Amino acid sequence: MKENLLIVNICKEKLHYLEFVKPICDILDNNRIRYFVRDYIKVSKDDLKKASRIIICGTSLFDNYFIKNLRYFNWIMDFDKPILGICGGMHIIGSLFGGKIRRCTEIGFHTEYFSKEFLGLKEKCEVYHLHNNFIDFSKLNDFEVYCGGEVNSHPDLVNSEEKISKSKCSQAIKHREENIYGMLFHPEVRNKEIIRNFCLK
Amino acid sequence: MKVGVLFSGGKDSCYASFLAKKAGYDICCLISIVSENPDSFMFHTPSITCVEKQAEAMDIPLVLVKTIGKREEELYDLEKAIKLAIKKYKIKGIVTGAVESVYQSSRIQKICNKLGIECFNPLWQKNQEQLIKELIKNRFDIVITGVFAYPFDVSWILRKIDKNFINEIGKLNEQYKIAVAGEGGEFESLVLNCPLFKRKLKVVGFKISGSGNAFRSEVRLK
Question: How far apart are alpha carbons A183 and A56 in whole angstroms?
C-alpha cells in the first residue's frame, strides 16, 4: 500500500496548529512522505480507510478540550494500522484503554532513559517535554512502558549519579500486540527521526 | 481571544503578530523588555527602544518593563510585565516569535503556565529559509541592527533583508553554518514596515558600536 499518513489535529486554538501540527508536516515533507491532515472531529470512515498509518499530534499545556470529546476517537480501538500518539495524542490512547489522567508538569529538555529501543531511541536520550498531565501506562496491562515511570525505579538508575530524569510519568509506550505507540515528549522539537522511524513500522 | 505579543521589534515577533492577527486573535498589547545587559540570553537588545515607535505605528498599546538583565533574574521582570498586561488588558494568552530557542521558549512556557494563560509560538520549528522568504513575500521591510558572528562585519549593519540578502546568507550558511534567519544569535533585526503598520517608519539616525565581527546599532526612527 502506498504511504498516505493521516495527521490528526487536536488543537482547539487555531494558532496552535502552526506549533504542534505544522512541524510534523514539515518532517514528513522533508522525508517525502505523503500525508493529509484532519481536525479530530472531522475524521471520517473514508479518511481511516485511506490512511496507511496515523499520527495524533499534541497541543498546548492548557488545551485539554479533546479529552471531553473522546467519543471522536473510538476508531482507535478498531484501527488495524500503526498509530502514534504524541503528548495529548498519548493521553487519548491511554484514556480509551481505561487510564486516568494525572497531574505532572515537565517543561524543557530532559535526559530520559529507554529500557529498550523505541522507534530509534535507546538508553540515554535528551527529549523535549511540554505537559501538565500524564497517564500511568504501567497500570494498563495492554501496554509496555519503554521509558519513564516504572523504568526509572530500576536500581541501576536510582543509584546512578548521571543526570537522568527521575520522571514518574510514562514517557514512551507501545501496545503489546498492536502497532500503537505513544510518547509524552515532543519529537517535532528534538529527535525528529522518530517520525520517520514510525513510518517504517 | 485577547492576546499580548512578546515584542522585540525584530522580524520574528513582528511576523508572529502578523500570523496571530491573520488567525483572528485580538492583539491587545505589545510587551517589551528593555535589558540593560547587551548580552542578555533572554532578550533582543540592539535598538530595542524602537518598540515605542513601532507600537505607535501599529496603534497597539505597549507594556514596557526594564530589567538589569541578570541571567534568570530577568525572568522575574518578564513575569512582572506579563502580569501587568493581564491586569490592564485582560489578555488570555501570550504570542512569541520563538523559532528554535528552547532556552527562551521553555522559560516563557513556564511563566505562562504559572499565570494560567495560553502560550502561542506560531513560528516554532519553522524552516528558517522558508521564514525569510515568507517575510519578503508578505512585504516586511526589515533591516539588520546587530551582527555577532564571523564573517560578518560592520557593512551588514542596516542592510535590508531582501532577495540579495537571502542569496548571500545562503552562501554564508554553506560556508560557515550561519543560520539563515539568525536563530543562532548571529544577527538581530528591526522591522520598519509590515502589513500591521499604519505608517512606514524611517531611520533618521543611528550609532554603531563594536569591533571585529560583532557590531550593534542604536537606531532612531521617525
Answer: 11
Interface subset of B 79-108, CB within 8 angstroms of A: 95, 102, 106
CA dihedral A110, A18, B16, B82 (to 10 degrees): -50
User: What letter represents residue A42's amino acid?
Assistant: K
Q: What is the pLDDT of residues A143-197, one digit of tens each?
A: 999 999 877 776 666 666 666 777 889 999 999 999 999 999 999 999 999 999 9
Q: Which helix (H) or strand (E) holds B162?
A: none
Instruction: Give the residue numbers spanning the domain of B41.
Output: 2-120
- Whether residues B115 and B170 share a domain: the answer is no
Domain count, chain B: 2
Task: Quote ipTM for the complex.
Answer: 0.93
What are chain A's domains?
Answer: 5-103+134-146+169-199 (3.40.50.880)
Interface of A with B in 131-170 (CB under 8 A): 132
Quote the CA–CA distance of A66 and A40 in Å, as a whole number: 8
User: B116: nearest CA in chain A?
Assistant: A62
* CATH number for the domain harbouring residue B148: 3.90.1490.10
